[in-house]
Amino acid sequence: MLPSQVAIKMINTQKVTEEFRSKFLPREIECWKRLNHPHLVRILGHYEAMQHVFLTMEFARGGDMLQHVQRKGPVKEHQAMIWMSQVISAVFYMHTRGIVHRDLKLENIVIFPDEGIIKISDFGFARSVIRGDALSETYCGSKSYSAPEILKGEPYDPYKSDVWSVGVIAFVIVTDCMPFCEKRPNPQIVEAQRTRAYEYPAKLHLSRECRFSIDTMMTFSWRDRPNISHCICLPWFRSLPPSGIHALKLPLSRLP
């Protein structure tokens, strides 16, 4: 039985590339059907009609995280920690099933205020990748959230690039700022990433644990960057309750 409200993603198959129609779209549907996690938006069905593909999914009444931050400013640190733990939980679930997202960003994190949780959405660039296989070479995702190795045009480990994107998401949520300016040429962005040319506003009084954990997820060398399984063990998340991150929810009245 479908819920009373659903979201529908409509794709005009005549206005997309052949590669998207024959490769990315089937891959998105297949990945989405394989996933079932409390912090991943659920696909409810899909069908094709009148030269369109329709994907029916859960409706997020709270909109996406970018809209939320633009409207209300930085998220308080404790609330941000709860939301980021939910993001990490979902990405960990995907990675343990051999699926990488490759387009993690605020616009693809949506809010369910009645449940007090967030969920990751939009699996347009997701794909199955066996660990140990050759590195990926397809440029995916948004420049603002892209890891250094992607901006340098190098083969990359998509598991580690997902972790970088999670770090950028955390930075933006707690500061309401992007760590790097996407309007600059790639070499300048990469240099800013290498030198960590970003700052945490002093007025926010962010804890050392928060800043260290975000910095760690944005480790410049992908070889030294932690796997997603290590991220939940970072200092920022040590206050999680014994029942685990699924128990962390914010009721509607407490949403920032």
TrEMBL record:
Please indicate which superkingdom the organism of origin belongs to: Eukaryota
Please indicate if the UniProt record lists Membrane as a keyword: no
Enumerate the SUPFAM superfamilies for this protein.
Protein kinase-like (PK-like) (SSF56112)
**Cofactors per UniProt?**
Mg(2+)
| One Gene Ontology biological process | spermatogenesis
Protein kinase domain location, by residue?
1-237
Q: Which UniProt keywords apply?
A: ATP-binding, Developmental protein, Differentiation, Magnesium, Metal-binding, Nucleotide-binding, Phosphoprotein, Spermatogenesis, Ubl conjugation
Kindly name one Pfam family recorded for this protein.
Pkinase
Q: Which GO molecular function terms does the record list?
A: ATP binding; magnesium ion binding; tau-protein kinase activity
Q: Which InterPro entries match?
A: Kinase-like_dom_sf, Prot_kinase_dom, Ser/Thr_kinase_AS
* UniProt feature coiled coil, ranges: none
Its cellular-component GO annotations read: cytoplasm
Name of the featured protein: Testis-specific serine/threonine-protein kinase 4 (inferred by orthology to a human protein)
Which species is this record about? Answer: Nippostrongylus brasiliensis
